[in-house]
Design a protein that fits this description.
Length: 388
Amino acid sequence: MERLRIGVVGGGPAGAYAAWQAAVQGHEVTFFDHRAPWEKPCGGGITVKAQDEFPWIAEIETRGRAVSEFRFRSPTDREVEFGCPRPTLIFARAEFDEAVRERARAAGARQLRRKVQSVERGRGGWLLEAQGERFEVDFLVGADGAVSLVRETVAPDFPAFVNSIAAGFFIPAQIERVETKFFSDARGYLWFFPRPDHLSVGLCLWGGEAGGAAGRETRRRLLNLLETYYPELDPDRGKGYGAFIPTILDPACWQVPRGGRDWALVGDAGGFVDAITGEGIFYALRSARAWCRALAAGRPETYDAIWRAEFGDELAKASALVHRFYHPRFVERVIGFGSKSASVRGLLSDLVMGTQPYVTLRRRLQREIVRGAARRVTRFLRPATAIR
């Protein structure tokens, strides 16, 4: 394929990885990120599945924290604790994202710390204006997050794209496990992710695109939850944040194109987030890799076909299941069974590691619950050892 001038708007994992791999292919790549390095508000977890698909992550493992212990708390405060045979790596996002940007720069991509303020079509490509300077590129990659200028330009009609609101704190404290709390009156979850030198605490609730009022309500609810369940954590000692997180609740949204002849959306800009777990870093990298594969083949217009073939079904399944998954009765039952059954805890372990596909989740859960119940009945009916 001819050498292209590629402009990547955004320098998070999706944008930096796209810039890295496109530069490796010999293209002239410029990626824009006026905030880098910055601490993105999220958990920062890299699942076992992600570690296996992107082996280079092992090179930066020491920058993160390995965590193998988890605790889920139900709406009525039932608990299940379980361990994983392999750890989730948890990074401060400033560290992880910079590691990907370092590789992009080393491959020959140019990083500009400028904010792209407008995007429009030019004669043979795209014109980008960034803080008073104009850039012309042949190919445009939108990696500019959940509220994406590029998406608004290339795909203004994007039905069923929903952003949830997240509010949280980076607190100078530590716990030894990842903790998650679910609710009876709202769809969403409270998370605690122990990073190397601080604790990332956040609350994500669905349908927060309405803006400020919903954001203030999310923050108020978070403060009340911290006071109730973790009074020893002082949010005043930490740094607060608020953010939008793509939450695709309608499987039909995955049929909307994320790319064309001379443009592509990757990462949050394309909505590539697991609707159930909120896992975004993995799909940021996967979407960027899918685009790079289309680019390497000389057919960037096949990007949609590639990402759908590689992981589209899994994301669509998550969107189809998310309402039932977060139903309070379902959460109560799963956590209740998990507190009694090692096999259900094993399923939860596989789920958080990313190795349990959604397409077989229901069947396996039913099987493990039946097995656990059968074992408990068998133990109950087993005659006591005779006293000699």
